[in-house]
């Protein structure tokens, strides 16, 4: 036999209180998890920034020491015969090992190792030596974010680009046309704009048309 159980006003209030307590507990637990996630992300980013600054400082010191060694080599080679003088390519290969470790660590830490090959770095170093550039100029390609410059035609000719566009590729370009050039490593979004058109017209103004005469009238004494 089933006996019906009737809950009075007090029972309803108790059930509502339990539900509210459970809701508050769930909200508090979610807030704790959110705070924990925020803290973990904060410390991860702070640690990454600290590691980048450390690698950057070591790289700058290594490159400056390498360029100082280059200047000493250039001073010594002034007294050598022309046949014994090293060309920029040989000089770059000679000093590159002294900075290679610091540069590789920095590129790995900043996730740029896939953008710069060792061959490209040595070619860039040879260009800097040839033009008597400073260590800061050499490091700009790696310390300042921007398009990656790689030397050698084989790198560009071997790259395959894909053009993605809503407009037909056989139609002419129009202002506002947007298309995408995509390859394996990165994508370029291109927006076309009209070249500014300036129309100049010559108008003759008679010099006599804007002349005026200023006449002074003598005041009458009272």
From TrEMBL:
Cellular localization per UniProt: Cell membrane
GO cellular component terms listed in the entry, alphabetical order: plasma membrane
Keyword annotations of the record: Cell membrane, Membrane, Transmembrane, Transmembrane helix
Topology relative to the membrane: Multi-pass membrane protein
UniProt family annotation: Belongs to the Vang family.
Stated name of the protein: Vang-like protein 1
